[in-house]
Amino acid sequence: MAIPPVRICASTGTGSQVIHRCSGRPPRGHKWRHCPWWRDSSGAVVVRRYYDPATEQFVSVDPLVDETGTPYAFTDGDPVNGSDPSGLYTPCWDALDPLSAGFGQCWSSGYARAGNATLIGVGAVVIGGNAFLGFCRGLAASVNPINLVAPPAGPSPGPKPTPNFEQPTNPPQYPPPVSDLPPGYTIRPGNPTEQYPNGYWRMYNERDQAVDPSTLKPPANVTKAQFEARTHVPLPPR
Amino acid sequence: MHGLPPDTDLQFIVGAELTQVCIGQNEVILNLFERVSFTLECSVSFAFDLGGPSILDKPKDIGIAALRLLGEQVRSVEILSEGTLKLAWGTRAFTEFYDSSQQYESYTITHGEEHIVV
């Protein structure tokens, strides 16, 4: 597959800003807001880093050179099957319908390889038909308009590890009878776990917040592990 | 911790509208119309429009992000691997609730009097 010419989008800022500043049209039948990539009048695609089609390499150094070890290589040397929307990495992709499911797929699995928040505000490169998805994923990865946290680096997305377990603060006991609970309070039992071999119970207030049964209040100003330790009451051995 | 069997019927969530976001120090509760709520004590990822995803762990951050979903209806629900619940909201947002706690409940889906603890 021939690599189309590319041009530089010099815009900065969030992805939406890039879209507004870079002229062009989305693919036929596609909406800007879902997967906005564009070509210029010559059919070239927008790229964040300078790219030389003749050598199939970027001509500016990969900001992630320490990680990739390839300061100029494009998609690990596989520009036909690969994509580097941010100019920083090579996301993996698979076939799907980008109009009906693309954004969700981009979002759920495409970003982790893209690195971190330094990707905010970039253009993208697309190559051939398959690049549609690649860019979609890449753009979803590369922008973060709410700027709450940086996506984690690594091979797959996911939550942070669970905090260390803390021993329950309430001794093993059976839950109080419902008639003794404050109005609106409820008790929910839990099945045995590794840490609670006899099972456990939690008490919830009228707002459905877990409370410390010893205070009848949600624990305040505590760590998550402390919160869990105070709101999970082990059942005694049977 | 408990996971979410992939064959769990969660179609009652589809069409529900987020009407209230309750932010506590230890959890976030999303109340939807009608009689559906999510109690989140887990990591949650958000993707809005062109942005995201952002994986959030602190209830305050999760709640603030969830404010953007107020008034949105759940367009689709999908159970991913390892207890992850993916929701599509309206036409422009997605969330994923992770079963991120190894020792405790990660999130609870409430439908009327029924509680699905994940």
Overall number of strands of chain B: 10
Mean pLDDT of chain B: 93
* Assembly state of the chains shown: heterodimer
Name the structural class of chain B.
mainly beta
The shape of chain B, in one word, is: globular
Give the largest interface. Answer: A-B, 48 and 46 residues
Report low-confidence residues of chain B grouped into runs of 5 or more.
none
Beta fraction of chain A: 5-15%
**End-to-end distance of chain B, in Å?**
6 Å
Overview of this structure, please?
The complex is a heterodimer of chains A (238) and B (118). Helices cover 18% and strands 10% of the residues of chain A. In chain A, the strands form 3 sheets. In chain A, strands 5, 6, 7 and 8 form a 4-stranded antiparallel β-sheet that branches. In chain A, strands 1-2 form a two-stranded parallel ribbon. Chain A has a two-stranded antiparallel sheet with strand order 3-4. In chain A, helix 3 crosses helix 4. The longest helix of chain A is centred in the middle third of the chain and has 12 residues. Chain A starts with 5 loop residues before the first strand and ends with a strand. Chain B has one domain. A 5-stranded antiparallel β-sheet of chain B has the order 1-2-3-9-10, covered by helices on one side. In chain B, strand 9 and strand 10 form a beta hairpin. The longest helix of chain B is centred in the middle third of the chain and has 9 residues. Chain B is globular. The chains are: A alpha+beta (238), B mainly beta (118). At the A-B interface, helix 1, helix 3 and helix 5 of A face strand 4, strand 5 and helix 1 of B.
Task: Record keyword descriptors for this entry.
heterodimer; A: 238 residues; alpha+beta; 2 domains; four-stranded antiparallel β-sheet; two-stranded parallel sheet; 18% helix; disordered N terminus; B: 118 residues; mainly beta; five-stranded antiparallel β-sheet; 1 helix; globular
Question: Can I get a quick summary?
Answer:
With 238 residues, chain A is α+β, with helices and mostly antiparallel strands. Chain A has five helices and eight strands.
